[in-house]
Structures are given as structure tokens and as C-alpha cells.
Amino acid sequence: VKSEGPKLVPFFKATCVYFVLWLPTSSPSWFSALIKCLPIFCLWVFLLAHGINFLVSHRSASRILAGLIFSAVGDAFLIWQEQGYFIHGLLMFGITHILYSSAFGMKPLDLKAGLLMGIVSSSCYAFLYSYLSGPFTYLVAVYIALIGFMGWRAVAGVQLCNDLWTWTKLSACVGAMLFMVSDLTIALNEFCFPVPYSRFIIMATYYAAQMLIALSAVETRDEEDFRKRS
């Protein structure tokens, strides 16, 4: 963690800039899109700082980088969500969750974690269902399935009982859970009822989630360094 911390300083500074400026969402602009996406751009740099060869040779890291790229595009679309680009943002983040799921992999399977995540996802959709109409009835269902699957793959990687875990797997797990909290807050605020301090909750959990998921990409590098020292 100490070795990766300095590389995240630009991300923390960019996040502070976003919260200090707190640009109004009622006046979307390319500048507000830049400020919102800047922390994610810094996470691109964080991963690229580990070297192109590292990203090329480790698919999980490159897929997380690709997920961050789609996330930034989704963030830009959501700046103009009132102008009809909410669905576009939803699509971009759906692709992001597919890429993250692929990065986390299917081993270990952990069907118990999958069942639990399925129950949580189904319960969330059941609550939202009565508030949805038109294409959102189906789009939200697909999106919840994608983020629920991503959450399952992140949780499955943390095998605490068997001591088969690393700090980066734990990072991915916590990051996925925070991402789900962020998106659930968006859904409640968008379709159900106003959530107090919704924007702060959404963005704080979102940035933290993306940072933790980006950190999980360095696990393969840690394993290589450990083998070399051994």
C-alpha cells in the first residue's frame, strides 16, 4: 500500500478539486464534465504508471483500465442526463461492469456469495420496479444484473476462511460494494424519491469505489515481485 500511495496523489487532488468547486449540475458544460472525470483520468495515469508491458501482459489490469475509460465516458454522458443522455451513461457503466467482472475472473466460483448477491440484487429491483416505466423497466433490470454479477465476482475473490486472500482482492470487494451503494443511490434519487445529500453520497462512494478497484489491478505485479524476491 505504501508503494502505491504516492501514485494516487493526483487522484486525491483531483477529487478534492471536484468537491471544492462543487459545480452546479443545473448548468452542464464541458468544463464541469472535465472536473467530474478528472479523478478517473488520474486513475488511468495510476495504472499506466505501472508500465505498458505490465498492462499488456496482465489482462485483468488492462480490463480494469478499459473499464475506467468507459466509466469516464459514462460520467460525461451523465453530466447531460437531463438532456436525454441518462441511458447512454447507463450503457457505458454496464460495459464497465462487464469489464470489471472479466478482470475479477470466475475462480473461485463461490456459489454462496453468488446466491447472496442474487438475493440482494433481486430485492433492489423488486423495490424499484413499481417506480419504473417504459424502457427503464428492462434497462434497470439488466443493469442491476450486471453490477450484481460484478459484485459477486469481487466478493468471491476474498476467501477469508481459507486465508486465500490479498489486500488487493479485499480492495476489489470493498470497491464493488461501494459502487453498488453509489448506483443504488442514483436509482433511488432518479426514480423513487429525493435522497438527502444524494450527490455527495453518490460521488464520494463512486470515487472511492473506482480507486479501490484500480488498486486491485496491481495484485499481479505484487505477486511477480514476491516470486522474484523468493
TrEMBL record:
One of its GO terms (molecular function) is alkenylglycerophosphocholine hydrolase activity. InterPro entries: TMEM86B-like. Its EC number is 3.3.2.2. GO terms for cellular component: membrane. It catalyses: a 1-O-(1Z-alkenyl)-sn-glycero-3-phosphoethanolamine + H2O = a 2,3-saturated aldehyde + sn-glycero-3-phosphoethanolamine; a 1-O-(1Z-alkenyl)-sn-glycero-3-phosphocholine + H2O = a 2,3-saturated aldehyde + sn-glycerol 3-phosphocholine. Keywords: Membrane, Transmembrane, Transmembrane helix. It is found in: Membrane. It is a multi-pass membrane protein. It holds the Pfam family YhhN. The chain crosses the membrane at residues 30-49, 61-80, 86-106, 113-132, 138-155, 167-188, 200-218. Belongs to the TMEM86 family. This is lysoplasmalogenase. It comes from Motacilla alba.
